[in-house]
Structures are given as C-alpha cells and as structure tokens.
Write a sequence for this structure.
C-alpha cells in the first residue's frame, strides 16, 4: 500500500492519500511514524483520500477488521480535529461508516465521509477551490 501526504496551512491541514491493496501492517507503521511527528499537535483538519484503495473483506470479518483498525488508530494521541474520508467504493463506504460509528462516539476527533472533492472541501470548510484541492491531492510531496 502506498501512502503519500503533505501538511498545508502552516501544519493545521493534512492531506493523506492511500492507494493499492490495504495493509494493516503498513497502516500501523504510518500511525507510529505520525505520532512521533511534532506537526501532529497542529492538525485541525484532515482529508483522507481512500478512493484508490483496494480492500478485500472476507465474509464475516468486518467486526474483526474494524477492531484492528481502531486498535491501530488508538496509538495516536487524542486531538480535536475533523477527519473526512474521501471514498468511492461501496466496501470502503461501509468501513468508513462503521469505523466512524464505533470510534467517534467517545473522542474529541470528529469524522465524516463523502465521495466528492467538492463535498470534502465544503465539509472541512476549506478556502481552496475544488480544482485547487484536486491538484493538491494529485501532487502530494511526501511518500511514506
């Protein structure tokens, strides 16, 4: 799984893009790296682009997979920010919905998901035009 990201607006806005076949191990490595970065304390808004992720869900394993994702995510310190997942596939929409329903209930972190850049821009209340945000996503500079 490939992960690219970049901080904007003096570190308060993070765009992260995941692509390829989903890997729990890779996600965990990324989270561990993220918790050690000083920039994490400045983040207030995150756009997580999952549109190019391929996820193979085995029958009856959604609960197990969600539990593993939540366990990894809990490695990060709590911060008050909004994280919007940009998804297009039905399976990632379900996973984002269940992840958020199970995770965002007792934390300061707020989540949402959508299928268009325009809605993500609106949801995050970003000052960029849709075309600018699209270009930012396509040109992320840091590869994990």
């Amino acid at each position: 799984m490939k992960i690219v990201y970049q901080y904007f607006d003096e570190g308060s806005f993070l765009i992260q893009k995941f692509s390829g076949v989903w890997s729990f191990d890779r996600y965990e490595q990324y989270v561990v790296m993220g918790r050690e970065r000083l920039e994490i304390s400045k983040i207030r808004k995150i756009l997580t682009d999952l549109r190019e992720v391929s996820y193979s869900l085995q029958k009856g394993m959604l609960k197990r997979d969600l539990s593993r994702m939540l366990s990894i995510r809990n490695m990060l310190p709590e911060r008050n920010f909004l994280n919007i997942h940009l998804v297009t596939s039905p399976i990632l929409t379900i996973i984002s919905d269940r992840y958020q329903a199970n995770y965002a209930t007792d934390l300061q972190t707020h989540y949402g998901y959508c299928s268009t850049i325009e809605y993500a821009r609106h949801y995050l209340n970003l000052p960029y035009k849709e075309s600018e945000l699209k270009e930012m996503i396509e040109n992320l500079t840091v590869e994990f």
